[in-house]
Amino acid sequence: QVHLVESGGGSVQAGGSLRLSCAYSGLTYSNYYMGWFRQAPGKEREGVATIAPTGGSTYVADSVKGRFSISQDNAKNTLYLQMNSLKPEDTAMYYCAAGWGRGSSLQARRYNYWGQGTQVTVSS
User: Fold this and answer.
1) What are the tens digits of pLDDT across the range 2-22?
2) What is the pLDDT of residue 55?
3) Residues 55, 80: contact at Cβ < 8 Å?
4) Which of 15, 63, 86, 87 has the most beta carbons within 10 angstroms of its beta carbon?
């Protein structure tokens, strides 16, 4: 059974940094691409960053390019999202997700498993 557990969220002032972690189990990392998504109240879930299986190519959304980065430590079964230069508009619930197959994606419908989310709040 696949489990994804996010941590590292919190409250920070604009310009600050946070690193989110997602501990995963029950999946073979070489068979799954992984991603980070976020959802603010009243808004649709947005793909933030994705990484191909075995920590291959990465891609981040234009809205966070140059500020966020995604990485993976397969020895620790952990996915990370480093968030720098945070803005109030980054405030949202952040979710990690795993999708079976090759490549990577920022489309939520392509993912099979989801964590419960961790809240990030950025104040101005």
Assistant:
1) 999 999 999 999 999 999 999
2) 67
3) no
4) 86
